[in-house]
Amino acid sequence: MKFGMRKPSLKRRISARTSLKRQLIHRTGLKMPRGYGWVRNPKKYGYNKVYQRTSFDLFALLKKLFK
């Protein structure tokens, strides 16, 4: 598990938005409502919950500073 600042990756950011899997799920209407991640994959949900609370994003930090 990572603690502290996350390293930004432009390649991963773009691929997450343009992946074939994401396009298929969104276009066929198979996406679940917000907050239902625990239904789809409980293990991943738990990991992501801890990860989000123990690490922070550089861009989010900059956004808060210059707001």
Describe the structure.
This protein is mostly helical and 67 residues long. It has one domain. Helix content is 64%, strand content 9%. The protein contains five helices and two strands, in the order E-H-H-H-H-E-H. It has a two-stranded parallel ribbon. It is globular. The chain starts with a strand and ends with a helix. The relative contact order is 0.19.
Overall helicity: 55-70%
Structural class, by secondary structure, is: mainly alpha
Give the termini distance in whole angstroms. Answer: 30 Å
H/E topology pattern: EHHHHEH
Q: Give the uncertain stretches in residue-range form.
A: none
For the biggest β-sheet, the strand order reads: 1-2
Shape: globular
Count the helices. How many?
5
Annotation keywords:
mainly alpha, two-stranded parallel ribbon, 2 strands, 9% strand, globular, Phage protein
Write a brief caption for the model.
The protein has helices at residues 10-18, 20-28, 37-40, 42-54, 58-65, and strands spanning 4-6, 55-57. A two-stranded parallel ribbon has the order 1-2. With 67 residues, it is mainly alpha-helical.
Explain the layout of strands and helices.
Elements: E1 4-6, H1 10-18, H2 20-28, H3 37-40, H4 42-54, E2 55-57, H5 58-65
Organism: Sporolactobacillus inulinus CASD
Protein name: Phage protein
